[in-house]
Design goal:
Elements: E1 6-13, E2 16-21, E3 35-37, E4 43-45, E5 53-58, H1 65-78, E6 85-91, H2 95-105, E7 111-114, H3 120-124, E8 128-129, E9 138-142, E10 148-153, H4 163-171
Parallel strand pairs: 5-6, 6-7
Antiparallel strand pairs: 1-2, 2-8, 3-4, 5-9, 9-10
GO molecular function: peroxidase activity
Keywords: Antioxidant, Disulfide bond, Oxidoreductase, Peroxidase, Redox-active center
Pfam families: Redoxin (PF08534)
């Protein structure tokens, strides 16, 4: 069995320190593969988005204010980015909850993916919170060749990412 990296002192939830499982991804790294659910029965991986620039927006749960705002913001921006870009929002929410949220919020450009079954994404990208089994908020931009071009790990779960910096980095690739 492979030992999972535990990172402490890098993130908090409501000011309380938590442990992140998995490695810290850095710019220039090859994007790790993952297995997540598009719906209850359909699993997808990084390969399903081959040849596209990917903005991966990681949220703890679409049912919180910050996560809602983050997902809505990237949904609005998605219209301006063209067909060579895909925006993936990944959380541990069940696919049912993601679908309900998207329907109620009019989210139709962002693809929501669920890390609930395997926590594969969370562990591969170093965002799985050991204590509560949710993914810590983060942004990753991966180019069409699956090289990581932008990383933002949020140190506090309730904080918003730097939308402008992420979108600027994304636009440099398209």
């Amino acid at each position: 069995m492979t030992q999972i990296t535990e990172r402490t002192g890098v993130a908090t939830v409501g000011g309380n320190p938590v442990t992140l499982l998995g490695p810290e991804i850095k710019i220039g790294d090859q994007a790790p593969d993952f297995k997540v659910n598009k719906d209850l029965m359909t699993e997808v991986s990084l390969a399903d988005y081959a040849g596209k620039v990917k903005l991966i927006s990681v949220v703890p749960s679409v049912d919180t204010g910050t996560c809602d705002a983050q997902t809505r913001r990237f949904n609005v921006e998605a219209d301006k980015l063209g067909d060579d870009v895909v925006i993936l929002t990944i959380s541990v929410d069940l696919p049912f909850a993601q679908s309900r949220f998207c329907g109620a919020a009019g989210i139709d450009k962002v693809i929501t993916l669920s890390d609930y079954k395997y926590r594969s994404f969370g562990q591969a990208y170093g965002v799985l919170i050991k204590e509560i089994q949710l993914d810590q908020r983060a942004i990753f931009i991966v180019d069409a060749n699956d090289t990581v071009r932008y990383v933002e790990y949020l140190t506090e779960m309730k904080e918003h990412p730097n939308y402008d910096a992420a979108l600027s980095a994304l636009k440099e690739l398209v």
